[in-house]
# Entry
Amino acid sequence: MVEEVMPRIIYRHQPASRFIVSAIGEPGQREFFMQVKSENNFNTVAIDKGQVIALAERFEELIRELRRGKLATPEDLTAPAVQDDEPLELPIESDFTVGVISISWENEQVVVNIQAATQDDELVIDDLDFGPDLIVAHLKIHQVKGFCERATSIVNAGRAQCPFCALPVDPQGHLCPRANGYRR
# Structure
């Protein structure tokens, strides 16, 4: 059986005017979404909570490296975060589920490539014509800082952690592995 390769759709946000993450639903049942907006494009993608945490951590690491290596201007590095606290734009219809994310520093901007999930989840940026759909967002450092603040707030708004095992605790408690399976 020959697998049909679909043409790739690339959404470009140069520059992105909005780059946010948010969650919908009750703690323990939340779905996470990212929205990217620019003058000519608007995308909503489904993203895993772990990916949100990893992306925020990687952004913070990138800012530290830019500061350490003096790769960005002092004005950009010290500019306050611009946190977008507005809700997700409606309707919330996911263009795809996030698979692989890459981050780079190019021409005084943070460039984020967000690729649709595939079976092997390998970033494909060499072949522009074929492959999973791709979002390319160009961000300023203050937008990245704002994303990190919002991401931390959104992630922390979920279920509390068990003080013994650090797993999430439902309102009814949970079976704690450190307490030999007793409910906490």
Observations:
- The longest helix spans residues 49-68.
